[in-house]
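2024-03-11 09:14:02 DEBUG pipeline.ingest accepted 1 chain
2024-03-11 09:14:02 DEBUG pipeline.ingest length=352
2024-03-11 09:14:03 DEBUG pipeline.predict start
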Amino acid sequence: MTGEGPHAPPPRGSLHPEGADLAWGGPAPDRKAPEVEPLRTTLPEGLVNLADHEAYARTVLSPQADAYFNGGAANEFTLRENVLAWQRIALLPRVLQPMAGAHTRVDLLGRTLAHPILVAPMAYQRLAHPHGEMATALAAAVLGTGLVLSTQASTPLEDVARLVLAESARGPLWFQLYLQADRGFTRELVQRAETAGYEALMLTVDAPVNGARDRERRAGFTLPPGISAINLRGLREPDPVALRPGQSALFDDLMTHAPTWDDVAWLRSITRLPVLLKGITHPADARLAVDAGAAGLIVSNHGGRTLDTVPRNRHSESPGPGRHCGDGGSSRPAWVDECGCRRRRACVATPA
């Protein structure tokens, strides 16, 4: 999976790239959410690493769901480079060093993590299995791994929180947020996350409009019945703008709702939770984020799913002072280790 999810163009003005329907494809085809398989006590034969699981998933997912989970923006140059850049890593190990008492712990936002790994926000996980986000949350909690729940989760955020918070050895529980044009709705969503027990907000800042995902369009991807961005129920579309001759539907209508640095200040003013900014790649933006009071930065190109040809994550140096996490393509232990060597406090992991 390549990160935050699909793509519909959202209700006008809800500028996340994870809407409930798609502009292309027309009515959803006669597809249903996947049925629950019989309970397994062992993995299918031959599944050893994440690449094996990815290959196996392609044998059971519909072509449409596979295109959604694995596709990127446009020609997918950045999507491919995200993985290739990590594959080019060459470790230079030291030997015969004293390792007694070594550990993988790291301090992040006032908590000590057992290891520097969090599960990145990924939308509509019930496309893959009816248990969706609940299964991911339980697995992460049992392993002491942090979880970042997507605004576009297909499971109520309260249900996920109850499951995670009940596990004593759990990692951090964060909520990924897209600012909506309806700021009142956004405030209510933030309050729901606070009440449910989420410990930080991860504001995505690099996706004011949808990425053009050619692979999804070729596959005719639409959400099947029964799967939606359930935590956005009740969100109203803004009234359309009456454009004058020469005005742009993008810049003079849709982008008028796009978040700005003023909105980061507004978000911080309405929540007691620390706010991290996800999607920072430029050093100048990192400095602005620190000045705006961000509790941390996620160095990320959105998994190559929003804008093609941007720098691959592994080559985006930690762009300024403060707490940094890397995101995207880190599916091997050595790559997580290399993420730390590049002065990043943790790895927000997605397989691509």
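2024-03-11 09:14:41 DEBUG pipeline.report The first strand starts at residue 106 and ends at 108.
2024-03-11 09:14:41 DEBUG pipeline.predict end
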